[in-house]
Design a protein that fits this description.
The protein is an alpha/beta fold and 259 residues long. The chain contains 11 helices and 9 strands.
């Protein structure tokens, strides 16, 4: 069976599953294009309130296929550049998607698989999940925005250690540093992520998308710039129908019903 990205629905959640039987869900450029298309579909569908990214079986993703990478060495450099570019387009699509994206991780998330996890807004990991940035072990450097993502949350000395040593990181360590949101029992990562997505689906979609944009932009903004962005966003939210429903429901002591 070939590498593919499976898209299914559970109520208001779009579930994207990395599937590559026999290769521990190793990535392929076809997955990147499918991922971008799936996120574009989620953006257009108001009934989709959240996206969950997971891996088939007991592995999240083994990263890139080394055999394919070796084949690319015998081709023009543009072939490898194009492949990495497609991965990066998917990473940007995950970050830019206005719906919250939750990673549900069982087993290892290695290489670009780890990068995909870091591109998600929220991360749920099984207790035995491992996160592996072992590019250095095979003479490579990170891709998928890994160096950027880790540097947003960790001091440079720690990021350097992680990337230069390439040792597996247990979920507990990343949870300690605030990168992983929730650590759950083995076999429960997807269920926990879906429960969380159900919870988020009951919030204001407009507010959720605005918060995601604010958090994304804050990493590169100065305080005055972010204050102006927050001002504009607050006024925009105040005059959106979701705010009317939310405030009215609060005053009427009922749960809001966002359409």
């Amino acid at each position: 069976m070939s590498a593919e990205l499976l898209a299914t629905r559970r109520e208001a959640t779009l579930i994207l599953t990395l599937s590559n039987p026999g290769a521990r869900n190793a990535l392929h450029p076809d997955m990147y294009a499918a991922g971008i298309e799936a996120l574009e579909t989620a953006e257009r569908d108001p009934d989709i309130r959240a996206v969950v990214l997971t891996g088939a079986g007991d592995t999240f993703c083994a990263g890139g296929n080394l055999n394919r990478l070796l084949e690319n060495r015998n081709k023009d450099r543009s072939v490898a550049a194009d492949s990495v570019g497609k991965l990066h387009a998917w990473v940007e699509a995950l970050r830019d998607c206005q719906k919250p994206v939750i990673a549900a991780v069982e087993g290892p998330a290695a290489g670009a698989g780890f990068s995909l996890v870091l591109a998600c807004d929220l991360i749920v990991a099984a207790h035995s999940a491992q996160f592996i940035a072992a590019y250095v072990k095979v003479g490579l450097s990170p891709d998928g925005g890994m160096s950027w993502s880790l540097s947003q949350s960790l001091p440079p000395q720690l990021v350097t250690e992680i990337l230069m040593e390439g040792k597996p990181l247990p979920a507990a360590r990343l949870h300690q540093h605030g990168i992983i949101n929730r650590v759950v029992n083995d076999g429960q990562a997807l269920n926990a992520a879906l429960d969380w997505s159900d919870e988020l689906a009951r919030q204001s979609p407009h507010s959720i998308s605005t918060i995601k944009s604010l958090v994304r932009d804050a990493s590169t903004a100065t305080l005055p710039e972010q204050l102006r962005t927050e001002q504009h966003a607050f006024v925009d939210c105040l005059h959106h129908r979701d705010a009317l429903e939310g405030m009215t429901a609060f005053l009427e002591k009922r749960k809001p019903n966002y359409s």
